[in-house]
Input
Amino acid sequence: MNDTLVRAAGCVLWRRSPVAGDLEICLVHRPRYDDWSHPKGKLKRGEDTLAAALREVAEETGYTAEPGAELPAVRYLANGRPKQVRYWAAQAVSGRFTPNAEVDRILWLSPAAARDRLTQPRDRDLVADALHALAV
Output
């Protein structure tokens, strides 16, 4: 077993609905895993964690994001290796989604619907953490 920690970073990406102004959370669908999650990915060698989180948001969603509060890190085993993902609440500033090999769909959902749609239970608490950080 390889005990090397896999380091990753991502964001709970949010915006105000262009229609009603309500807060919406962005989830990404990864066809490789057929799951719904927050945008995230592994750090490149020597990459700053926050820079990696914002890069992953841009790559997976097409949006540039303004980072806010750091959220609790999530730790779990991935393919038998310990993995730690650091997250930030981040507001979508501009951009547009274009489907790609890694992410074929995104959804902007209410926080409750996002929590219900997330595949991994470990990702669900991040929605509440982000809302708390945003004082919503």
Notes: The chain has one domain: 6-133.
